[in-house]
């Protein structure tokens, strides 16, 4: 491992270079995170630095929209997202970086800083899903939805974490944007047993590693949008898909609107069911 004190005096190729062979069989999102930028760098300088690898769009989040910020064009966040037109440009960028453990860095200069190491964080598509038990049936009714997942999180990391917390995991996947194939900040984990699934949704919250800290995220049942009502099998809803899922461990079933009311409010034998929480599918999320 090299010392960080040498960054300013060495070129990327003199450190831990990334060979073309290492990238040959890998596929990446066209969207790349770049963090740790010099505070005085502007967008034109960013484009000049990173466009040598291919045509690129700079997505620069800002904490303020004041005219002063736009006029100075200074970095308000210290990081940007690069969106390349071609995945091959991402591979060219990575090949010019150097590696420190599993992190990539590129030396970037600004008017007041020379060769500052900035982190280049590409998203490798192979990290999108992870199968622990390939021979087992993946039961969607044993699947949880996790929102607010830090974008650097890999599916394998999620799988091992939830297995340690709740029991054997079959499969984990990171939800990605279909166009850019970049993480959307959500994920799903499928357990091998109903007991593990119930333990996860009962626990509700989990701490996910995020840099030097941990982020608290909520765990919910994953709601499918193509399930028939488990109570009436379509008789009370003209065979339409059931919109409601009951997340209480005593239910864990899909209901049409009529059956939800009958089971949770109309049956005097199950008075406690009127406190059950209903989950619905809202776009790609469970709410």
Automatic annotation (TrEMBL):
GO biological process, one term: cell differentiation
Pfam families per record: CEBP_ZZ, RRM_1, RRM_7
CDD domains: Bbox1, RRM1_CPEB2_like, RRM2_CPEB2_like
GO cellular component: cytoplasm; neuron projection; nucleus; synapse
The keyword tRNA processing is annotated on this UniProt entry: no
Presence of the UniProt keyword Repeat in the record: yes
Annotated GO MF terms: mRNA 3'-UTR binding; mRNA regulatory element binding translation repressor activity; ribosome binding; translation factor activity, RNA binding
Annotated RRM domain residues: 30-125, 142-213
PROSITE patterns the record matches: RRM
Keywords annotated in UniProt: Differentiation, Repeat, RNA-binding, Spermatogenesis
Domain of life assignment: Eukaryota
Subunit structure: Interacts with fbf-1.
Purpose: Cytoplasmic polyadenylation element binding protein that binds to and regulates the translation of specific mRNAs. Essential for progression through meiosis. Involved in spermatogenesis.
The protein's name in its UniProt record: Cytoplasmic polyadenylation element-binding protein 1
Organism from which the protein derives: Acrobeloides nanus
């Amino acid at each position: 491992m090299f010392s960080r004190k040498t960054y300013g005096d060495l070129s990327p190729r003199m450190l831990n270079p990334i060979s073309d062979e290492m990238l040959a069989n890998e596929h990446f999102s066209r969207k790349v995170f770049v963090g740790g930028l010099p505070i005085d760098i502007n967008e034109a300088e960013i484009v000049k630095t990173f466009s040598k690898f291919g045509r690129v769009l700079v997505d620069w989040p800002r904490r303020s929209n004041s005219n002063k910020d736009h006029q100075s064009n200074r970095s308000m966040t210290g990081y940007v997202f690069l969106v390349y037109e071609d995945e091959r440009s991402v591979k060219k960028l990575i090949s010019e970086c150097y590696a420190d453990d599993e992190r990539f860095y590129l030396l970037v200069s600004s008017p007041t800083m020379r060769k500052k190491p900035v982190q280049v964080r590409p998203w490798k598509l192979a990290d999108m899903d992870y199968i622990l038990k390939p021979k087992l049936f993946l039961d969607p009714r044993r699947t949880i939805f996790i929102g607010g997942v830090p974008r650097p999180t890999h599916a394998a990391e999620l799988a091992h974490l939830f297995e340690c917390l709740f029991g054997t995991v079959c499969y984990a996947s990171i939800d990605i944007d279909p166009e850019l194939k970049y993480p959307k900040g959500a994920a799903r984990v499928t357990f091998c047993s109903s007991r593990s699934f119930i333990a996860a949704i009962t626990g509700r919250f989990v701490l996910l590693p995020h840099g030097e800290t941990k982020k608290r995220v909520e765990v919910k049942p994953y709601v499918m949008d193509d399930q028939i009502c488990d109570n009436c099998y379509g008789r009370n809803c003209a065979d339409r898909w059931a919109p409601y899922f009951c997340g209480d461990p005593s239910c864990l079933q899909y209901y049409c609107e009529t059956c939800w009311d009958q089971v949770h409010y109309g049956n005097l034998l199950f008075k406690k069911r009127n406190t059950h929480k209903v989950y619905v599918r809202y776009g790609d999320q469970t709410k």
